[in-house]
Amino acid sequence: MCTFVAMDFSSKLLENAVYEISQLPGIGKRTALRLVLHLLKQPEEQTQRLSQSLMTLRNTVKFCVSCHNISDFERCEICSNPKRDESLVCVVEDIRDVMAIENTSQFKGLYHVLGGKISPMEGVGPQDLTITSLVNKAKEGKIKELIFALSSTMEGDTTNFYIYKQIEGLEIRTSTIARGIAVGDELEYADEVTLGRSILNRIPFEGSLKAN
Fold first, then answer.
1. Per-residue pLDDT reduced to its tens digit, 202-212
2. Domain-by-domain residue ranges, the chain?
3. Interval 104-128: pLDDT, tens
4. Contact indicator for 69, 94 with CB cutoff of 8 Å
5. DSSP code of residue 124
6. Exposed site from 16, 26, 48, 109, fewest CB < 10 Å?
7. Contact predicate 149/200, CB 8 Å
8. What does each C-alpha distance from 66 to 77, 98, 102 come to in angstroms?
9. Which class does domain 12-60 fall in?
10. How far is Cα of residue 133 from the mean position of the Cα atoms in its chain?
11. Long-range contact pairs involving 115-118 (C-beta distance under 8 Å, separation at least 24)
């Protein structure tokens, strides 16, 4: 269980900076303090570049109108690439999964980024994700296969099944990555060889339902 770390700061400015950085995921107050002190030791220009890059990212970054991936343009480079197979779409949770799969060099289709997983415990429902746009895309008839590549957790399986039911009746194959990825694991932490093989050796989604 995470406990609150009490700290006595000699500066309110330092305390505020540490507090803001400690709000980032995986960053505790002690780590935040080390990062802030490190920045104070660096040339002012470096801190300015960091601050400017974050502000530029926040103010100008876009989300691809087609797959919802983070992009510099209206359509991301993957969706704009004519060499990609638009009939094959891999459904993932977020951009980290896109990056992980791209690093395998084993997938030549397109992606659809949901922006999360259905999780009633966390108050995340289907309406909070990009499921509607995925279903609409499926109804256009260009997609021949959907690959479910969400993490093998209860929330991931629930999301897979919900999407599967939404497109039931459409002439679209549904598959899921092979369970070379351990149950409960996130894709971003899988090694490239294992992840690549799990995509190449994907199984029909209906088969995974029977297995469960």
1. 878 875 665 55
2. 12-60, 81-211
3. 888 999 999 999 999 999 999 999 9
4. no
5. B
6. 26
7. no
8. 11, 14, 17
9. mainly alpha
10. 17
11. 115/68, 117/93, 117/150, 117/151, 117/153, 117/155, 117/156, 117/158, 117/159, 118/155, 118/158, 118/159, 118/162
